[in-house]
Amino acid sequence: MRVERGVTVADLLAEPRLHAIMRLVAGEEGRDRAIHHPRVQKPGLALAGHTHGVVPTRVQILGETELTFLEALSSEEQLERASVLFGLGLSLVVITRGAEPPVALLQAARETSTPLAVAEPRSSRAIQTLHRVLD
Asked: DSSP secondary-structure letter at 102?
């Protein structure tokens, strides 16, 4: 897939290598959002409040570290942090390891129509597969 001109989230998730390992769990209305970068991003610092450098048109990966950070916060803080991240107009957020998405992420995805997917592999494998597809 050539992403320089943009590929939609729907087209990306329909790609057989991704369709086999990834499922959309929220934000279906945003499936037409474009991805313009072949490299993914892990926005851990954005969850801590530092959003500088987040590129909304990259696929955003939330792995075990990011999820355990969120789990350590109160429910109110989780919602606040998720709202800030998802308020950036992200193209696609992917949770790895087949993890159950926290309620705060599901709510933020629905409120912003941001596609939120769950990938079964751990972060490194999910990233490798995404890079192979997006290159």
From this structure: P
Domain at 87, CATH number: 3.40.1390.20
Residue 11 lies in a domain: yes
Count the residues in the chain: 135
Task: Tell me the whole-structure pTM to 2 decimals.
Answer: 0.96
Residue 92 maps to a domain: yes
Please name the residue ranges forming H helices in the chain.
9-14, 16-19, 44-47, 64-71, 75-86, 103-112, 123-134
Structural domain includes residue 1: no
Provide the number of structural domains found in the chain: 1
Domain residues for the domain of 105 are 7-134
In a domain, 2, yes or no: no
Tens of each residue's pLDDT in the chain, 135 residues = 666 678 999 999 999 999 999 999 999 999 999 999 999 999 999 999 999 999 999 999 999 999 999 999 999 999 999 999 999 999 999 999 999 999 999 999 999 999 999 999 999 999 999 999 998
